[in-house]
Structures are given as C-alpha cells and as structure tokens.
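Chain A, query sequence.
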Amino acid sequence: MGTGPDGVIDCAIIGGGMGGVYSGWRLATAPDSKIPASGIHLFEMSDRIGGRLDTIRLPGMPHVPVELGGMRIMKSQSIIWALIHQLGFAPIPFPMGGSHNLAYLRAHRFQVGQYSDPSLVPYWLTEQERGKSPSQLVVQAIETIIPGATAMTNEQLRAACAVATLNGFPLRQHGFWQVLLNLLSVEAYNLALDGGGFNTVLTNWNAAEAIPWYMEDWSTDPDATQYYSLPEGYEALPWRLRDDFVAAGGEVHLRQELIAFTRRRDGLYALTFHDHGIAHDHVVLARRLILAMPQRSLNRIAEHPLNRAGPTEFFTKPGVSELLSTVTGHALYKFALAYPQPWWHMLGLTSGDSVTDLPLRQVYYFETEGEQPGGDPNNTNSLLVAAYTDGVSVDYWEGVRSSGPPFETQPNPFVAADTPRLGDPYRISALMVAEAHRQLGEVHGLPDAPPPYAAAFRDWGDDPYGGGWHSWNIGVDTKAVMPRIVKPVAQDEVYVCGESYSTYQGWVEGALQTAEMMLTGHFGLAALDIGLASAA
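Chain A, predicted structure.
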C-alpha cells in the first residue's frame, strides 16, 4: 500500500459507490487539488466498484446490459449530465413507453392512455378527479397548495415549499401522504399510489422535499421527460472514474470493510479494516476521512457489531447521530428475467413500463439480443425487468426469496452448457421466478406466455446498503442539515457524502451533489463545469 514518507494516507475514502469514486477522481485529477493523487486511497467492502449501479449480462444476451441498480439519467440533472459528457460518454434516450403501455389495477386491464376514460378506471373518483392519470392527480394536489408549481423551476419550487404552509403548519412538518389526503379523495390517493408504481414515493416523508422531487421526475408525460441511459451500461461510469483515478496515482482496495476509527492525539485517524480476502484486521493511518456511504453503512460502524477494535467515538459526538437519523432508507427489489422471445411484442409493448397493483408493481421492457450491434440476428433472447418494487411489496417477495431451490438457467440454444452461474447476490429462488412469471401472465392477459430461461435479482435493502433510495424525514430543515452533514463535526477531518443526504435522493445526481458540496466547501476545489454539455 502506497503511503506518504511517514506511512500516512492523506485522504482515505470509504465506499466505492458513485459518491466515493467520484470524490477520489475529483481529488486526484482536479488541477486545483491540494492533495497528491498518490496520497488518496479508496476502500470498498465488496469485490466491485459501483455501489448501487450494478450492470450485469444474463446468459445468452451478451450485448444487452441488465441494470439491477440505477438505470436512467434525467437531462435536468446538471452534474451527472456534465460528467458523462466530460468523460466522453454518449448517452442514448431511455424511452418510458407511452399511451399504449398497460395499467392492471383492481383486476382491470387498460392502456395508460385510457385514464382519460373514467368508465375504464376502477376507482370511485370525484368529478374533479375523473379522467386524470395517477401523476396528474398528484400534480393537481400540488398545484392546489403551490399555485403555479408546474411552471416553476426546481429552485423556485423549493423556495416556494420552504415558506408554504398547510392548515397553519410549515409544509416540511407535514408528510407527503398527509398533504395528498388533505387535497385528494382517498380513492384518488389510492389510484395515484397503485398506478404510480412505487409504494414509498407517496408515503409520509418530508412534504417540502417530496414535492420538488416529485415534480421534476413525474409532472410531465413520460414521453416528454428527457430520460437517458448509457449504452455500455450505467456501471461503465464508476468504472471509468476508477480507471482515471488509478491512472492519476490513486489506489483502490477491495474487500476492505471499515469497522471502526478513532482520532489519535496527534490528529491522525486510525482506521481499523477487516480484510475479507484473508479474514484479518489491520490498521491504516490517515489525515482525512471521507465516508461516502449510505445511512445504513454509517450506522453499521456506529453500532460496531464486531467487538475487537473498540467503539467509534466520532458517532457519539454532539449532533452526529441526530444528523444521521434525518433520513429513512427504503428497501427495493429488482428482478431481471430473460425470455427466449419477446412475447410482449405481440401486445405492441416494446419499451418503458407497465404498472400493476400486484406485487410485481412495475414491468420494464428491454432489448432483444439479435437486434443489438454485434448480436446474432437469429438470437431472439429478450430482457424484461419484473419486478421493480419497494415498500410493502418487498415484504411479499421476502417471504419466498429463499424458499425452496434456487432458479437454474434453463436450456437455451444460445447458452453454452458450461456457462458459469451468477454469483450469490444475484441468485433467486425458482419459486420467486415462477410467481413473477405467473403475475406477468395476469398483468398481460397471457397466462400461457413461455417461461423465462434465466433470471437475476438484487435486494438493495440488504446490508450494507440499507435501501435502494432514501427520503428526508418529516420536520427536517434540509437547507440547514445538508451543509452540516458533509462535515458533521467542525473540529474533525471527517466528511460524509452520498445519495442519502441529498435533494436528489434515489439518483446518482444526489451522490454527486453532496460530493460537490464537500469538495468545493472543504477541499478547495472549483465546482465541476456544468456548462460542458450544454450543447449536447
């Protein structure tokens, strides 16, 4: 391990997700960085870089990236948009489907373009609510409390939410669910919840944060919102940052779990790592510490279940635990199923998502191998993501997650017999796959659709992630909290960044946002030039 002449690391970054690898890349490559690249070390608990960006390939589909984590970018997200263009990536449109995609709610099947026909929508709505889609109902409620919200920029809407009140109380003291139930009928709320695809988005999190978050992503028609993806797979982004970081002189250490740290009298931090490769603990000294970790990972250190290095005093300092507890993590499941042919095409479904109130919740239609550059044109193996689910639906799948034997790849003419199995994080039970396929048949009205031949799964509620996304708790003043969370203790050189404590929770942009706050506010870096991609 390369260190300075005194054997001390200048900056230890903990976490190889986007917040960590981006921070390392910026510190190692920015011309105004005051830390030598050789003194920056990144430590990651797992055997991979990328965090909740996780791109895999299923057997028989080498040219179809499968996104089991984050999968899309909004053009309005200025930091990520500038970054991918600065690095030379060429994003492609991520179609979100259209009016022909399906809604299957309360055992009624109709196209999402038919929300305008109240006779097809099985909810008892008021006259003012009839004929509106789930997102239109939510936007109607938001416009009631923030008039003109749809015409505001994100910054203007945040400012309006900061001073808005409901029933005499500041908006941030309300939950989003509570606000919606003040402004919509119960049936309209249930339609918005069922037809929105996610369970946790409309639950009781900080309404002053939920409203601008929702409006940026959900307030326009899916075809009008500018979503993009990386054709190489989203994981290519953190990999590129890692490669550039290492080329500049930084070092990456995998399978290294930080279990405790303490500040010595000389001001250095003694970091106790568990090396999962050799099952051995060791101590590293560092001058600065960046904890690029989600809330659950931070709490794991604070709770210190491994009784061999002593407690981490940092987490007991005034205000630290209160800062860390300002958000809540939400479990999220993603299944990817590979089919021998895209049977959904016979229904005119080629991209985007269909939504159901069944535990599948969301179904995304993706590519066919033979239609991809370099793919065998005879290969009709196709990808479908089902389910993409959170909240109470996770509890449904948790019951069968490990029930019975694991699912094994089925014979397929484009899959060699000696193809290696997917690793443990991606394994899924045969029962789980069978149940997902059964629900797919019900959603699409095709009970005899051919079964999948391959499958993969990720649960982002598992340790050390603690959730696929996070939400601000009711009552939190995020404008006051965010500058503090990046440096929780003024006298300590310990910093925190990541999606958890951002205004773009659930997005890569959130990890980059907090990293930029940290790097420009405490490491002296100039802000990333977000005008780089303005003409793209």
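The longest helix spans residues 430-444. Residues 39 and 462 are 32 Å apart (CA to CA).
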